[in-house]
Amino acid sequence: MQYYATGRRKTSVARVFLRPGGGEFRLNERSMEEYFGGHEALKMIVRQPFALTETLEKFDVVALLTGGGVAAQAGALRHGISRALCDFDIELRKKLKKAGFLTRDARAKERKKYGQRGARRRFQFSKR
Known about the structure:
The chain is α+β, with helices and mostly antiparallel strands. Helices cover about 35% and strands about 25% of the residues.
């Protein structure tokens, strides 16, 4: 039996499969240590839903991550894991919701506007 969910953050998408196992992570066919390297904060973000619901050693995580950078991908993975845990046991939803793990963080880069240098930055004004 496996549980599937999609997590999103900025331009990143994480397709997450939870399978009964011993707590192993496979991210794009690589281990979590390989994928996130020395970024301990990102690894912690990914493990948060399991730590909160005390299910860390119950599942293996297989995830396909696309788009964005590693930080956004970690956020997307956390979102996907949280959603998949809700599929596994609806009772966990209350804890995950309270912690804010089920909320899709909608913050994204604002688009550049025409006649400007960036989203809000104007070109330098010259009076003469």
